[in-house]
Give the backbone structure.
Amino acid sequence: MPSRHPLVQTLLELRGNPRACVFTEPLWSIPFNLFIPYASLYMLALGVTTEGIGLVASVGMAAQILFALLSGALTDKYGRRVTTFVVDIISWTIPCLIWAFAQDLRWFLAAAVFNAVNRIAQNSWGCLLVEDSDRSQIVNIYTWVYVSGIVAAFFAPLSGLFVGEYGLLTTVRFLYLLSFVMMTVKFILLFFFSSETEHGRQRKLETRNIPLWKVFRGYGGVLGQILRSPGTLLTLVLMLVMNILSTINGSFWSVFVTTTAGVDERWIGLFPFLRAVVMLFVFVTLVPRIRALRFKRPMIVGILVFATSQGLLLVSPQFGLPTILGSVVLEALALAMVSPLLDSMQVVLVDPKERARIISILLVCILALGSPFGWIAGRLATFDARMPFFLNLGLLALAFVVTLTFSRARSLERM
């Protein structure tokens, strides 16, 4: 019976903060997944070049370094709940308005800086989601977070119809205004239906009389803890690779398939729909079984499948739409396998007492190392539109080698 499926059981058993986070998430993920396929095309339509798109991505990632560094201290001192609410308003409500009325590159650069503040909420919201949850449900909880985003993709073809009827600029401006309303409602509901976590209350009490700058003093010891942990180092490398892949694909995928592979702008919304169908199928059938496997097998398979998807994309100008469809299917399969597992690694392999500061340092390292890649990919795209995706293949090769090497550590045998 469906009610006996592990994902359904997890959803029915959610209480407290995990329930509030999961049940309100569609109000953010639905509008986000409606506008994101058109974000780069929207920038192009307003006169931003591919190099400018890469610059926006790199400026955003550079700004995120600062906010990621602050995230652990702010989350501990002011609590997971309050920090999440304030930062969500700054990093999504304000940028959605800027994007909706954008005129040129300067608007997108300003929005990127505001949006970068979200790195603080990424830390605080993650703590709010998992700190009071059952460890055995972590993978399934993250799966439901991803499923909430997938639901939006079923509405993506409707956006394509509006693009065909009203034009790209009018449609995307409307989607940003819709996002402004829905996301703001989500932030308010989450604040009222959540409460501070047990670890959050402890950290607030411990840092209550300590100036914010002094909270950073313990970062050196936390960094040493990360460097001594093979599991945390592996998590760092994989998070870095996935972050760069997300930046490159998010900035250049739609540009590549429309300008080089010859896909009409009106059909862009169909690809998220296809990706959603595949990911939903994998989440329901495969992901609940991943915990029974050793860590290395699903991660290696996911990396190889992702690499194959990028290879198909590169040959799509010669072989047409079937290769683009195949690429989308394989990318969706890889993401559905890797993403919940990688998120669960951040929970299982991190000291719960230092979770906020460890995740803060991980985010800083990822952003510091990854921030140039948006600009690099933009420069590469000016020479050849395929080059950013060759870069993706190189990064996936690195992830493959590192996973094989670090997964031999005893601390990862339980994964």
Summary: The first helix runs from residue 6 to 13. The mean pLDDT is 83. The two ends are 28 Å apart (CA to CA).
